[in-house]
Amino acid sequence: MQKDPTVQKPSAITILGSGFGALSTVRELRKRLSTEPITLVSPRAELHYLPGIIWIPSGKRQREDLVVPLGPFFERMRVRHVQADVTGLTDGGRTVLTSTGERIANDALVIATGGRFIKKLPGIEHAITPCEGIAAAEAIRDRLRAMQGGSIAIGFSGNPQEPAAVRGGPMFEFLFGIDTQFRREGRRKQFTLTFFHPKTEPGKRLGKQAVQALLAEMQRRNIHIHLGHKLVRLEADKVVTEGGEIAADLILFMPGMTGNAWFDATELPRSPGGLIAADAQCRVQGWDKTWVVGDSGSFPGPEWAPKQAHMADLQAAATAQNLIDALAGRPQSAGFKTELLCIIDSLTSGKLVWRTTSRNLTLPSLRLMHWAKSHFEARYLRQYR
Fold first, then answer.
1. How far is residue 359 from each of residues 16, 206, 207, 340, 353, measured CA to CA in Å?
2. pLDDT confidence band for 8 (50 / 70 / 90)
């Protein structure tokens, strides 16, 4: 039987990653009634809810609370999952290369594989990098349980070439959470806590009011503060800076972020900091029908633009609409709002920080905000369970 030449083959959409940006793109595409076949490539069919790892050291969360199998979600969303690592792109993004050898052709591509922490500081192997995953948070939990006392140093830094590529908020949460945990356990006096950062205003993208409130909270909790000194190296028992040394039996350190290693095997346009250069519609600059969402991308906007799940969700919505319009031959005009929205939790209370291009609000620590953060987690994960 001869095929009808007027019947068009459905466009194939490929999404790389299975984190917030990738999964939100899937939801937004289906919410906008996109019926095109979707292939999603990632190493595992699971969502790891990393904002919840701040509660693992205290026992408030366990691994099973934060790992969501995505099989049922993929089935509902009619997504084919390919379990593999991405190794490269060819044909201007129209073919995805994978670690299994499968070559996946597409008519539209969304890159949402996250970022990579810069591990160049000498001695960084002596520190735990909390946001590397659930295993890192479990290592912190186990170390804290084994310690009878001592010194703990907690800090973060950024990518000098990419001001937005930093994950500082969780480090304040680990700092305040550990302080609260020790007080609950009646052993805070056995520990010295020190917060360090190479700049004099840590967390500056949160806004001046938030920075002042965070530093005041550290002083109230008798947490030592070491600011404004370039990091030189980490050792097994100390943090060495140009302004002196910090004794540390345990170091928690979050370095700045850059692009995934597999980007280097492609011709993707890169920002000075190593991320994928994108425009205000999340399009990869100079590439046809290719978008980037979340930590993988460098986007236009204010220097305080955050790298957080909330921003990835906003970018996913714009990307989904632009992708649908592009496949239909329509102009792509959907943009995303730059908005920093977070609750800095301390295990029993939380400080709300909200920043947009027109306002910057910081609320005092409230118990209500702690419960709001926990409630949001449950509601967010429900859509994937």
1. 34, 11, 10, 10, 11
2. low
292 vs 323: CA distance, rounded Å:
11
Kindly report the three-state secondary structure assignment for every residue of the chain. Answer: CCCCCCCCCCCCEEEECCCHHHHHHHHHHHHCCCCCCEEEEECCCEEECHHHHHHCCCCCCCHHHHEEECHHHHHHHCEEEEECCEEEEEHHHCEEEECCCCEEECCEEEECCCCEECCCCCCHHHCECHHHCHHHHHHHHHHHHHCCCEEEEEEECCECCECCCCCCHHHHHHHHHHHHHHHHHCCHHHEEEEEEECCCCCCHHHCHHHHHHHHHHHHHCCCEEEECCCEEEEECCEEEECCEEEECCEEEEECCEECCHHHHHCCCCECCCCCEEECCCCEECCCCCEEECHHHEECCCCCCCCCCHHHHHHHHHHHHHHHHHHHCCCCCCCCCCCCEEEEEECCCCEEEEEECCCCEEECCCEHHHHHHHHHHHHHHHHCCC
Q: What average pLDDT does range 243-260 have in this prediction?
A: 97
What is the average per-residue pLDDT within 311-323? 98
What is the share, in percent, of the chain residues with pLDDT greater than 70? 98
- In the chain the domains, ranked by start, together with CATH numbers, are 13-115+259-327 (3.50.50.60), 119-257 (3.50.50.60)
* Intra-chain end-to-end CA distance of the chain, in Å: 44
* Cα 335 to Cα 321: distance, rounded to the nearest angstrom: 9
Query: Is the pTM of the predicted complex or chain greater than 0.85?
Result: yes
For 17-53, write each residue's pLDDT tens digit: 999 999 999 999 999 999 999 999 999 999 999 999 9
Q: Rounded to whole angstroms, how far apart are CA atoms 297 and 40? A: 18
Other CB atoms within a 10 A radius of the CB of residue 208 amount to 11
